[in-house]
Amino acid sequence: MLCWSASFYPQPIYNYRRRSTAGLAIDFPTINVLGFVCYTAYTAAFLYSPEIRKQYAARHPVSQEPTVRFNDLAFAAHAMVLSAIVYSQFWPKIWGFKVSRYQRVSKPVAGLFWGSLLAIAIVVLIVLIKSPDGGYDPSSWAWIDVVSPYCTEL
Amino acid sequence: MNVSRDIADSIQQLYATSYVKLIITVVKYVPQAWVNYKRKSTVGWSIMQVLLDLTGGILSIAQLILDSSFEDDWSGVTGNPVKFLLGNVSILFDVLFVVQHYILYRNARSDKDNGGLPNVNTPLLSNSGARRR
Predict the structure, then answer these.
(1) Three-class SS state of A20
(2) For the segment B17-68, what is each residue's pLDDT rounded down to a tens digit?
(3) Which residues partner with A98 through β-bridges?
(4) How many CB atoms lie within 10 A of CB A93?
(5) How far does B17 lie from chain A, in Å, by closest CA?
(6) A24–B3 CB contact, under 8 Å
(7) With a cut of 0.85, is the ipTM above it?
(8) Is B116 exposed, middle or buried (0-12, 13-18, 19+ CB in 10 A)?
């Protein structure tokens, strides 16, 4: 866990020293930002949202306590901030770094990025339409379906 | 009845998400490997990040192996070895980046890396300083 957390620092520092992002594919930071925003939302919801915890307990009668811990949230939030910094380094207006005009997001990664957002939007819609009480009844589609499965694996 | 369905559901979900994770890991690392290949250089891609990620991955596997041996239950490793490896596919990419950095493109690293800006070695008609040499 420490190694994984530390692994987010060398790239932004390296970019800063070179004052450039040349040679770095933008795809990796792009998908990382989305992934860690989702992962942070997921851990925070499972730790601090009484509604999500209630729905989880209703769905998992055997082990009612989610396995998410505070250090998961700390890791996720930390990774989110560092990924966002690397992503921001591709914007010359913010950092003044040299960015090649060839550094664009590739089509598969762009598809994955927008596809993920679309998938989340679709689940939100399903919850709003299918749930009898606006997402609070855990036996039907509920808000836990938005935060739990789809977001966590980026 | 409800309990067994519960367990079946979570196993199902676990399988589904591990394939999603596999796809995303592959899709997010391939562009960088490709950029390195096209430039015949790993300049710009931090090798420290790769080494730390690799260390984290190896430690996490080591923990899994230790846990399995303490509980005398090796199903997490031997149950489906292909899935075990694919689940750690970022380790495979880390190894690829290490090979690119230290073996394939080791000559592309210059002591005076200036972030791809043109320098005295840059051909005058080159439109990309990053592709010098």
Answers:
(1) strand
(2) 556 667 777 888 888 888 888 888 888 888 888 999 888 888 888 888 888 8
(3) A20
(4) 6
(5) 7
(6) no
(7) no
(8) buried
